[in-house]
Design goal:
Blueprint lengths: L6 E5 L14 E2 L2 E2 H11 L5 E5 L3 H9 L19 H20 L1
Parallel strand pairs: 1-4
Antiparallel strand pairs: 2-3
Length: 104
């Protein structure tokens, strides 16, 4: 029996207003995003950790800490009022299309 793929998608917007650039600010010597990535990578059932961001610097740091960043989220889906539904729909659509493309 094939083990199911369990995917973690971490949203990480570059334009935070409350604490600017909070995802890459250091906490205990590591960027804040590193802690979310580490939690996903340490989970026994998780097979992939993906960061959804529109920010290339966040994407690069995320890759250094072991996450995948197979796409950059469009800037219009990274605004102050963008809900989880929009980034989730974009991420899911991207993953479905890339799976289909790999199988062709």
């Amino acid at each position: 029996m094939t083990k199911p793929e369990i995917l973690v998608i971490i949203p990480a917007r570059g334009g935070s207003k409350g604490i600017p650039r909070k995802n890459i600010r250091l906490f205990a010597g590591h960027p804040l995003i590193a802690f979310s990535i580490a939690a996903g990578l340490q989970a026994e059932t998780v097979t992939r950790v993906i960061v959804s961001t529109e920010d290339e610097q966040i994407a690069e740091i995320s890759r250094r800490y072991g996450a995948e960043t197979p796409f950059l989220r469009p800037a219009e889906l990274a605004g102050d009022t963008t809900t989880d539904l929009f980034f989730s729909r974009h991420s899911s659509g991207w993953m479905i299309m890339s799976t289909i493309a790999r199988r062709l």
